[in-house]
Amino acid sequence: MSKRIIPIVMDAGALSDAAKAAADTHDHDVDPGSPLPGSAPVYVQVGGTPVDEAEIAREMQFHRADNPHDARQAAATTLVIRELVRRECERLGLAIDAVEGETEDEARVRLLFAEAVTVPDADDAAIRQYYDTNRARLHQPDCLRVRHILLAAAPADIAARQRAQLLGEELIGALKQEPDRFIEFAMRHSACPSRDAGGELGWIERGDTVPEFDRQLFMLKPGMAGLTVETRYGHHVVEVLERIDGEALEYDDARPRIAAYLETQTRQNAVHQYLHILAERYRVEGIELSA
To answer: Which of 1, 52, 106, 254 meets the CB 3.0–4.6 Å disulfide criterion with 249?
Structure first.
């Protein structure tokens, strides 16, 4: 039996006087796809100058986040800081001279912070205290000798990634039974140029590969990984051939690293404090800059 479509018609008499007036004044010739009249609302201001929501929406594409509110907050903060830096450079009369490959906004940030933010060198007492507190974490880089089979799949192709994972699991199962076939499988299936070397990547330290591969790789013990390792490139069948844990660093060897780290932390704190000073100077409204 076919479905009946029952039209519903509301007589004008059922409308309130206010609704009838709105209906009478409604412009039916307006294109429903056209934007709403008037400018976008303004919630954020710097010194009375608005940063409208349309600008923030355009900036949000550069600040991906799981939560849209977080993306909007990051985008609005970036635009506010950009305006604060521009105003302060003008106040100080700084000549903006961008180097090759640098935007004018980046040049302003570099020149202003070099002019206004001073960072003292880390003192020996602070370096020694950090060393004594974090001695277990201060060591030479861990090293792994690894071979892999890359089963390539584009990040957005869910079906291809599922197929790659299933194939990877099949290969892992087969290699547990016949480990000597790794080179054969690498040459047959891998999309990485290392296939010509049987999948060998050689010795790897932290930071040598993309972050998601690096993070999972250094959690593995020597031997065949029981599951595939997923990265932006697809799924990897991975075997750790050797692992060398880095030796603990003596104080003299660790000192330059600790000093650089502490100076970076001090600089970040100084920049945050300086931005808060600028926010007060130029009356930022509608947003709290991250502490």
So the answer is: 254
The amino acid at residue 239 is E
Q: 210 and 148 in contact (C-beta within 8 Å)?
A: no
**Residue 12 in tokens:** 């004008």
pLDDT digit string (tens) for 151-195? 999 988 999 999 999 999 999 999 999 999 999 999 999 999 999
- Do 176 and 128 belong to one domain? no
CATH no. for residue 210? 3.10.50.40
> Of 206, 221, 244, which residue constitutes the final position of a domain?
244
Q: Residue 5: inside a domain, yes or no? A: no
How does residue 4 score in pLDDT terms, banded at 50, 70 and 90?
very low
Residue matched to tokens 């192709």: 157
Looking at the structure, do residues 77 and 208 belong to the same domain, yes or no? Answer: no
The residues pairing with 223 across neighbouring beta strands, listed in sequence order, are 240
The C-alpha atoms of residue 82 and residue 112 are separated, in whole angstroms, by: 12
Q: Are residues 144 and 133 in the same domain?
A: no
Shared-domain flag, residues 78 and 51: yes
3-state secondary structure of 24: helix
In the DSSP assignment, the letter for residue 139 is B
pTM passes above 0.70: no
Query: Domain span at residue 106?
Result: 41-138+254-291
CA pair distance 211, 85, nearest whole angstrom: 32
Does residue 140 carry a pLDDT above 80?
A: yes
In a domain, 222, yes or no: yes
The structure tokens 């479905």 sit at: 3
- CA atoms lying within 13 Å on the CB side of residue 125: 0
Which tens digit of pLDDT belongs to each residue from 212-261? 999 999 999 999 999 999 999 999 999 999 998 888 889 999 999 999 99
Q: Are 119 and 266 in contact (CB under 8 A)?
A: yes
- Regarding whether 224 and 165 lie in a shared domain, the answer is yes
